[in-house]
Amino acid sequence: MASGGAQSHTQSQPGAGDGAKPASGSMEYQLRQYLLLLASLVATVTYGAGLNLPGGAWQVDDGQHHAGDSILQDAHRHRYLIFYYCNATAFAASLVVSLLLLVLDGKNTGWWEALLRVVMVLDLLGLMGAYAAGSCRDKFTTIYSALLVCAVFAYVVAAFCWYLGVLALPRKKHRDDHNTAKNNDTSAANVHGYEREELDEVLMLLATFAVTITYVAGLNPPGGFWGDTKDGHQMSDPVLQENYSRRYRAFYVCNTTAFVASLLIIILVVDKKLTDKLSVRFVALYGLTITALLGLMGAYAAGSCREVHESTYVICLNAGVLAYIFLQVAVAVTVKNRCRCFQTVCDYASKCLLGVKGWCFDRPQDHQPDPQISSDSATTTCRDQKHEDEAVEVEKARSLVMLLATLVVSITYQAGLDPPGGLWPDTRDGHRFLLKRHTLEAAMILDLFGLISAYAAGSCRDETTSIYVVALAGVVLVYVVIHIVFFTLDHKDNHRDKEKLETRREVLLLLAILAATLTYQAGLTPPGGFWPENDGARGHRAGYPVLHDNYRPRYSAFFYCNAASFMASVALIVLLVNPNLYRPGIRCYALYVCMVAGMFGLMGAYAAGSSRDVRTSIYVLTLVAAVFAFVAIE
């Protein structure tokens, strides 16, 4: 009974697979939504970091450097190469993880899950290498980050060797061990199954956001970077490092510690075989969680303030939060223990009373069910089931509306605060903003009417290009409709695959929102920045992309790949709202084609916009070819 109750309760949770049996899938399948969120956020931060490299970009052409080129590439060549390759690897691996999660359905265990683990490890290692290369500027930060990276890498190698050893065991012994572990897991799930699953989900969510926050903060520390070498400054080094060296070191140590601790939390949560014992799991997960939270609070206190009294205030707030958490835990444990004792006494008294009743008053006819009561019970059960189904549909609609509303609000808010074309750096000629550009004016107004119109107006500088961009969305919609019409003529609707379609719809929707978010902001603020002022001699116009003038073919490739990915993603979101469209679209793979096209457009835009030389672009194109081969095999 306890097991059945735990399973039914787990099935009702969104993280449990929306009706799928948790016991039938691996940990990757059970946490697929959170792994997809992790892959999406990693793709977000690596895409942004690749297009806007740490250290900033040159603002003017001085004969030695081109405006829009990375300063880090000239100041720290080797660090730049390590960062670029690791960041690109993490970005491509995140997309592959997303595609693998689309393949998993809880039944195809084996090589797909093994491949997913390998790609996830590659993703996290690439992210860690990019962080170490992009955030270090001196000996202290280099040594500290290198020690943490080596420790995590050693742990991953040891875990991978242990995993290979398990695979190398004889089949019978491996099957016996698997059955024993399965029985142990079942008995443990009877007591702690639902609680441990909830714990894994919360820790996964916390670690995911901690990784993305600390990654961005480490690559772009507070205070910015030096843009010149005046007064002995080192180009592209953090300003905080020179003016407040102790504060910068405290920020870096806390931020890096939180970053690495969050990565270890993710690895431990996914690889549950390494943490079967409750004591080991408690020490590892809870210890790393406390370390990550303390690191985040310490980094915030050191990086957000410049005065001692401000830092003291922030530290006192952090101490108050920790005290409240410990007090809450202590109260909860005390109340739980008392309730458990009281419940034990009540259960014992109930059993005694039921025993007395059965011994004194029990008769055979008492066990005959009343037909009227049975009929009423069946009617009530049907009515409750109907209300429950309606509640599930309402909850799905609410979740979809909230997700789309969050997407629109987040990207339009950022576009409003950081408008396309940039801002005037001074007040010459009476300029305050780029109010003379009709493109900016149109983008700010059309943000209220639709993302497509705003993107077309904000990313283009002529009407013809805007028309081409808007037409891409129409082409995608027409293609999907034609594909559905021609490939679903003889299809008969099967209600058994409804749950599978809903699961794949959720994955497609999250991937489409990821691509739309990345490409929208990248289209409005392309890599390399904008010209800050007019230069008639060189033909530069304020508000126009620097990449457009210095690297015209590369900018064209970036622009059209980014626009194609954005339009395909938005069209995919529109189609996924209507069940009459997305169900046949998923069955005939029309929506998969749109999603894959959007992913390749995203990677093409990354390859064209993140680098300025051929060698680094070839590496990214090789990754694109690898992803294409994976999709073809799949």
TrEMBL record:
Supply the Pfam families for this chain. PGG
Q: Which residues cross the membrane?
A: 34-53, 82-103, 115-134, 146-169, 202-219, 250-270, 282-300, 312-335, 465-486, 507-524, 557-577, 589-608, 614-633
Identify the keywords attached in UniProt to this record, alphabetized.
Membrane, Transmembrane, Transmembrane helix
Q: Identify one Gene Ontology CC term for this UniProt entry.
A: membrane
**Which InterPro entries does the record match to this protein?**
PGG_dom (IPR026961)
Amino acid composition bias (Polar residues), ranges on this chain: 1-14
The UniProt annotation puts the region (Disordered) at 1-24
The PGG domain, residue ranges: 30-137, 197-306, 394-436, 499-612
User: What is the protein name given in its UniProt record?
Assistant: PGG domain-containing protein
What is the phylogenetic placement of the source species in the record?
Eukaryota, Viridiplantae, Streptophyta, Embryophyta, Tracheophyta
